[in-house]
Write a structure and sequence with these properties.
By secondary structure, the chain is of the alpha+beta class. The protein has 2 helices and 2 strands; from the N terminus they run ββαα. The chain has one domain. Strands 1-2 form a two-stranded antiparallel ribbon.
Length: 71
């Protein structure tokens, strides 16, 4: 599974970055949580919603990124 990140460069231009879901680290997790607040708010492609793999990656992001911990 890959995680797709859209980086908006300037109006009408964006870059797509792909990251292997097994390469989730603390910096990436913190960045995702800073944007979305909670992993269940991160967009997931419809065909993958509810899959065990998505839940595994969401759990990893939450655990590594510190979701649910007091700041």
């Amino acid at each position: 599974m890959r995680i797709e990140i859209s980086a908006f460069v300037r109006p009408n231009r964006r870059t797509i970055l792909l990251r292997c879901a097994d390469c989730v680290d603390a910096r990436f997790s913190a960045a995702v949580l800073a944007v979305y607040g909670r992993v269940d708010l991160v967009p997931v492609e419809a065909v993958l919603e509810g899959s065990a793999e998505v839940k595994r990656v969401q759990s990893a992001i939450a655990a590594i990124g510190g979701e649910g911990r007091d700041s």
